[in-house]
Specification:
The chain has one helix and five strands, in the order βββββα. By secondary structure, the protein is α+β, with helices and mostly antiparallel strands.
Length: about 100
């Protein structure tokens, strides 16, 4: 897979370089992080499955070297983002989690 992409936070003061690992798979997408002290060599994985008439999105931020305070912060943040994604898919307007240079709360 090619096509390095960046994911930036806090007015792009924190930027992660991600390389796609899966392409053209309708139910799975994954990227390997190539930068960042704690994120380097972790993987962001989205897996879609059908359950009856619904689609379930399973997200995993995998392959962390160790549990740390930063790991806990990221895990909590991803959880909040998944709840906001669900709300948006249900037609609600959950509002942003991130502002330009900070978290929204």
């Amino acid at each position: 897979a090619t096509g390095l992409v960046t994911l930036g936070f806090f007015d792009r003061q924190t930027v992660y370089a991600l390389r796609p690992e899966t392409l053209l798979q309708p139910t799975r997408a994954s990227w390997r992080c190539e930068s960042g002290h704690e994120w380097k060599n972790t993987r962001l994985v989205f897996q879609l499955t059908r359950q009856g008439s619904e689609t379930v999105v399973q997200f995993t931020h995998a392959d962390w070297r160790e549990g740390s305070e930063y790991f806990t912060l990221c895990n909590t943040t991803w959880g909040e983002l998944m709840y906001r994604l669900k709300a948006a898919a249900e037609g609600k307007q959950p509002g942003p989690l991130f502002l330009k240079s900070s978290l929204a709360y």
